[in-house]
Design goal:
about 30% strand; alpha+beta; 4 helices
C-alpha cells in the first residue's frame, strides 16, 4: 500500500470512527489543526460543526491506520505534510505567523454524490482560503 492511500484511508477511517463514537453525522465532523510555530507539534481538535468535542494526537491518527509497527512512519509523514501545508499557507497568504492559519480536515462529497473523501481546508484568520482533497495534496507533495 502506498503512503498516499495509507494516509488518505487513515484519515477517512478516523473521521468515520470518531463520528460513530461521538454519535454525530460524519458530514458535520471536522478536525481542526493549529500550529503554534513551524517547529511545534500540531494541535488537533475534533469539532461537531462549531462545537468542540475533544483533542486528539497525531499518534491516534497513525494508530487508526492499522500500520502497526509502521505507525511511527505514518505519524512522521502526517506531521511533515501538515507542516508543509502551513508553510505553503504562510507564503501564499503573506503572513508571518502560523498562528493566523488553521487547517480543517473533513469529509468532502465527491461529484458523484455517492462517495466522500478526506479534504483539507486552509483558513486564514477564520476565513476559508482554499480546500483540496487530501489525496491531491499528497500527490502534489510527492511530485514537488
Amino acid at each position: 500500500m502506498d503512503t498516499e492511500k495509507l494516509i488518505t484511508d487513515t484519515c477517512e477511517n478516523l473521521l468515520l470512527d470518531i463520528a460513530v463514537q461521538e454519535k454525530i453525522d460524519p458530514r458535520n465532523l471536522g478536525i481542526r489543526i493549529d500550529l503554534e510555530n513551524e517547529s511545534a507539534k500540531p494541535i488537533l481538535s475534533v469539532f461537531n460543526k462549531s462545537k468542540f468535542l475533544k483533542r486528539i494526537k497525531i499518534k491516534e491518527l497513525a494508530k487508526a491506520s492499522g500500520a502497526g509497527a509502521m505507525s511511527g512512519l505514518v505519524s512522521m509523514s502526517i506531521r511533515k505534510i501538515l507542516q508543509s501545508i502551513f508553510k505553503y499557507g504562510k507564503e501564499q497568504y503573506e503572513t508571518s505567523s502560523t498562528k493566523e492559519l488553521f487547517l480543517l480536515i473533513h469529509l468532502r462529497m465527491l461529484a458523484d454524490n455517492l462517495s466522500r473523501k478526506p479534504a483539507i481546508a486552509l483558513y486564514k484568520q477564520g476565513v476559508i482560503k482554499e480546500t483540496k482533497l487530501l489525496s491531491d495534496i499528497i500527490s502534489q507533495a510527492a511530485t514537488s
